[in-house]
Automatic annotation (TrEMBL):
PROSITE patterns: GGDEF, PAS. One of its GO terms (molecular function) is catalytic activity. Residues 2-54 form the PAS domain. This is Diguanylate cyclase. Residues 168-300 form the GGDEF domain. PANTHER family: DIGUANYLATE CYCLASE DGCT-RELATED. InterPro entries: DGC-Regulatory_Protein, GGDEF_dom, Nucleotide_cyclase, PAS, PAS-like_dom_sf, PAS_fold, Rev_trsase/Diguanyl_cyclase. GO terms for biological process: regulation of DNA-templated transcription. It comes from the Bacteria. It holds the Pfam family GGDEF.
Length: 310
């Protein structure tokens, strides 16, 4: 396997991965590292992590680059290290992450560098957990447990900023449950709420950690796909469409399943996130007008081109 194939494999991971040589110079920076940190590879490669870039700090605010860098220590003694640190994001804020540093050895066993795998922290100190609790109270839809409309607005603005500053494209799926009013009228709002919750859980089942599914309101959902292209956007939409068709709830009267109409839009250069959302909304409307349970992108039904996908 050549180096290009290794790079493609590492770029496909949802964890951030970067490598450093014995001089402290960063030699590799994968796609998820870009998304998590805000820094593109060309801004990082060839520079030292202590060079006013990541500059990890511990929970006491001490800079690890100066007092105890896990990567440098691993290069020195060859031991694997794990830690919870706070990474400096390009936009200025500190983000809690978990890191795992491992040595890189050549064929003779000599240490030639280190690799760090990192991701957002899932076991943060109490203060961060309290902040997360407060954030959820404001930004999470109480019925479904996914992001609410306000969370969608904030996330879309962040996507737009990443697009303008880093040219990182994003896609939006606007999802509208088909015939939901009829379900509510026939079976009642309690069953309708169960349908809404089922759809929300189904839509989040196949997303990457860096993507976001939000309840826009009523029977409408917005899905944000970071670093996406046309093929990926349509593929995800169709997989979610098929997965939703195979989901159901049981009531006293019957087994209920639903379909949804999908509208897709991909960000263009210098376009606002609101504009991308409006285009996705229009595509969902066209999908409903075309008979529902289909996917529209750029005013065309693209469902048929994906029907043979397993």
């Amino acid at each position: 396997m050549d180096s290009d194939q290794y790079k493609k494999i590492l770029d496909a991971l949802t964890d951030g991965v970067y490598m450093m040589n014995p001089d402290g110079v960063i030699t590799f920076w994968n796609k998820s590292a870009e998304l998590l940190s805000g820094y593109k590879a060309e801004e990082i490669l060839g520079r030292e992590c202590a060079d006013n870039l990541l500059r990890h700090v511990d929970k006491n605010g001490m800079e690890l680059c100066l007092t105890g860098c896990p990567m440098a220590a691993t290069i020195k003694d060859g031991k694997v290290r794990e830690a919870t640190v706070y990474m400096h994001h390009k936009h200025g804020h500190r983000m809690p992450i978990t890191v795992r540093s491992s040595p890189i050895r050549d064929a003779s066993g000599k240490i030639t560098g280190a690799v760090e795998v990192f991701n957002r922290c899932s076991d943060c100190p109490n203060l961060v957990m309290e902040m997360e609790k407060l954030r959820k109270e404001v930004l999470v839809d109480p019925l479904t447990g996914i992001g609410n409309r306000r969370y969608a607005d904030i996330t879309m603005n962040q996507c737009g900023l990443s697009m303008r500053e880093g040219n990182t494209p994003f896609g939006i799926l606007f999802v509208d449950i088909d015939n939901f009013k009829q379900i509510n009228d026939t079976f009642g709002h309690a069953v309708g709420d169960r349908i809404i919750t089922m759809v929300a859980k189904t839509l989040t089942a196949m997303l990457r950690p860096l993507d976001a599914a939000c309840r826009w309101g009523g029977d409408e959902f917005v899905i944000l796909l970071l670093d996406s292209d046309e093929k990926g956007l349509i593929t995800v939409a169709n997989r979610l469409r098929k997965l939703l068709k195979k989901s159901w709830i049981d009531t006293e009267e019957s087994r209920l399943s639903v379909t949804a109409s999908f509208g897709c839009a991909l960000s263009d250069e210098d376009e606002s996130a609101q504009s991308v959302l409006e285009r996705a909304d229009r595509q969902a409307y066209l999908s409903k007008e075309a008979g529902r349970d289909c996917i529209y992108f750029r005013d065309k039904d693209v469902t048929s081109t994906m029907r043979s996908e397993p």
